[in-house]
């Protein structure tokens, strides 16, 4: 299993830095985010150092997303949030701060709970034809 000696999440996996571990198996680890944006804010990471979604191995992603619903339901059962955001930032422009893939589970407790996540509606800028062109351009890379 490869690790980056300067990566804080790799140090957590190697138990060089303490963490409040919620779940762990051979492939992934989940722990309480130190920032606790909202109560129950949890991170799910691969144990192997994989920088971002672009580098995430398919088998790792498959395992990680098998665990994700279990973790989400544990948060739901324990804290009864109004909702839950799953957030993954990739690259500096997308606000990735730790360059080790991680998925945030952010429980939501109403609109004024301290977490803001907005999407601008640009639908008037794209016709059905323009959306199909986008889809066709992406399809050729799959």
TrEMBL record:
Pfam families per record: HIT
InterPro entries: HINT, Histidine_triad_CS, Histidine_triad_HIT, HIT-like, HIT-like_sf
Organism per entry: Alteribacillus iranensis
Active site: 102 (tele-amp-histidine intermediate)
GO terms classed as biological process: nucleotide metabolic process
Motif Histidine triad motif, residue range(s) on this chain: 100-104
Domain HIT: 8-115
GO molecular function: catalytic activity
Coiled-coil region list: none
Protein name as it appears in the record: Histidine triad (HIT) family protein
